């Protein structure tokens, strides 16, 4: 009998069903810190690998002689691969366990990461990045499902916020490190360094993550899985949350795919190392994601989404300035708003889904990374056609979509309250 099963049996014997002891993790309790740090490291590895080429796009364009819209496929292929495979990987997670799937996904992704620096051409690089993204698909949905099962509901927003904070640290460190390394030794060495960092995170993750105590294996039968997916897609609240995640990520993907081109061109003409350091603003996302629980406590979920959307829109407008300090302030607001909105929406998915949580989370992650791929591609095309103003225009339309969907949600909630009162 596995150790986790033995532990569960001992708990059941000591506390009869009538006692109903909640053995899920809670802040300050045993195992919570190890779990939080392990998933934080998984988030670091995921985002560092997933966006490892984003800050290097001008250098990749230069080596292969391609435009921004073509080089951006090294980002879009990775996020697109993740979006396509996150649902199938969630099915394996339901059958074989969250920790097993997350470990396997990281192992494959870091192996591909070691091969990426040796890509002989742009098509080969794009293909490797697509495989890497597909491998990483096992992380996001499995992580949120693991948290929903192993953490008490009152601590869920905070726990998911810490995982999202790991995403922000990974995204930041990956871009800052690649910027400075690439300035001295080129983009190939830079992505190799990120691969080595991800290997260290993957090993530490596997050693630290506690064995699941509340996982119950599900079915791999296609009919059962499709039925669960249909139920989730039929839920109006889940549909709204999926759309909100996609739209927030459209903004973020577009802005950070193109910002390197803008800052290396006139009037800023910044060197690659300085451009990479711009991504230190991700630290703002670390803070905003980890404090999303308190924001929801003060404003409610929809109020928090309004605040996140308004902050993101204000940042987009500020970034139009020709003053570098104002552009940086705009990036700070965009980053803070995005990560807060993402943490609120993703945690709401975990709370809303009462069964098939891995599939519910997978659908959110699929929509989220489809938004990233769309943002990277459309943002680059808009930049090619209309400069930074074009990219900002795409972002503002996406934020308008977030606000509109949240308004619909507010009206639906009020209508339900009126019906309940009547």
Automatic annotation (TrEMBL):
Pfam families attached to this UniProt entry: MFS_1
UniProt topology in membrane: Multi-pass membrane protein
Record-level GO cellular component terms: plasma membrane
Keyword list, A-Z: Cell membrane, Membrane, Transmembrane, Transmembrane helix, Transport
Gene Ontology molecular function, alphabetical: transmembrane transporter activity
Subcellular location: Cell membrane
SUPFAM superfamilies: MFS general substrate transporter
Gene3D superfamilies in the cross-refs: MFS general substrate transporter like domains
Residues spanning the membrane: 37-59, 71-89, 101-120, 126-148, 155-173, 185-209, 241-261, 273-296, 303-321, 327-345, 366-385, 391-409
Major facilitator superfamily (MFS) profile domain: residues covered: 31-413
Principal location: membrane
Coiled-coil spans in chain: none
Family: Belongs to the major facilitator superfamily.
UniProt-recorded name of the protein: MFS transporter
Species annotation: Streptomyces pseudovenezuelae
